[in-house]
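User: Could you walk me through two proteins back to back? I'd like the raw sequence and the C-alpha cells for each, with a short line separating them so I can tell where one ends and the next begins.

Assistant: Of course. Protein one, sequence then structure:
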Amino acid sequence: MIVTLPSTNNSACEHAPQAAARVEIARRHQSSRITPALAAQATSPPYQQAAPLTKRTFAGITLYKGKAAVAFKVIRPTWTQTGDSSYAMKREGVMLLEFAPIQGGSSGTGVGDRRYDWDNKQTIALSHWELGNFLAQKEGEAVPRIFHDPNMGSNLAGTVTKELQFAPMPNSSPPVYYINLTVTEKNGPTTKLGCPVTPGELATIKSIIQFIMPHITGFDAIFQDEQEVYGDYNAPVPVPDGPPPF
C-alpha cells in the first residue's frame, strides 16, 4: 500500500517552537496571577509593609539640685510655605528652661534620693538674643535680668510675669552661679525656683548654646538639602502654652 503524506509547510515548522514557547509563557503568567486569597495574605501581618515612621528626636540636660531641678531643652523653628518652592520662618526656635521644685520628704543628700514635682514646673523660653547674653557673660559676672510677659499684646497682659536671674553667689571661689526663675501672678502666689550652677556646668550650657544658635535662628537651613530642611523642619512640634516668649 502506498500512503501519500500531505506536503509540509517549511515556514510553519520553523515557527512552531516559538508558538509553543508563547503558549507556555501565557500558561505560567496565568498561574502566577495573584488571587484574592494571595492578595489578602500579602497584606496581612507580618507581610504588609509598615507605614513610614516620622523621626522625632528629643534631647536635653537637667541639673538636679537640693531644692529644685532645671532642664534645658530646645524647640526647633517652624516654617511656612510662601510659594511653590519658597519657605519662610514662621516661628524662631528657642531654648526652653523648665524648673521643678523638689517634692516634700525627698530632700536626700544623693540625687537618687530626690524626687521632683514636674507636674508643677515653671517654664521660660529664651530667644537667641537672650542666649547671647550667656555667651557674652564673663567669669564672675551676672547675666542681665530677663523679663517675660507671656500674655503681652492681649487683654491678659500683666497677669503673669516671669523674671530669670543668673548671677554669681557671694563669696564663692571659683565662682558658683545661681539661676533663679520668679513667676508672679497678679491674683495668685509668687513662685521662686532656682539651682546653683558650677563653672563646669556653665561651660556645658554655653557649649550647647553655641551649637544650637544657627539652628534656632534657621541659618543652618540655608546650607541644607531642600528635602531635608522642609520635610523635617515643617513637621509640627510641641510648644509651651501661650505666644512667645512664653
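----
Protein two, same layout:
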Amino acid sequence: MSELSDFDDAYKDAELNIPDGIYVVRVDKVRSTTTQRTGAPMISWELRILGPTHENQVLFKNSVITEKSVR
C-alpha cells in the first residue's frame, strides 16, 4: 500500500481552484439525494469542463431544492 506522501509532488503542481467564469461542461453524473443536516431534497452534479480553459477538470456542485428555487 502506497503512502500519501507519494502524491506530494503531483498535489503541489496541481491547480486547486477553478476560477469563476463561463465554461462549457458536460454532465458526467447527476443524482437525486437529500442534505445530511435537514433532509431537504438536493441534486448533486458532477461536471467535466470541456473548455475554453481547464479542460478535463471536474466540478462537483449541489443544488438544494426549496420552494424559492423552483419558482
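Residues 20-70 form one domain.

Let me know if you want the two compared in more detail.
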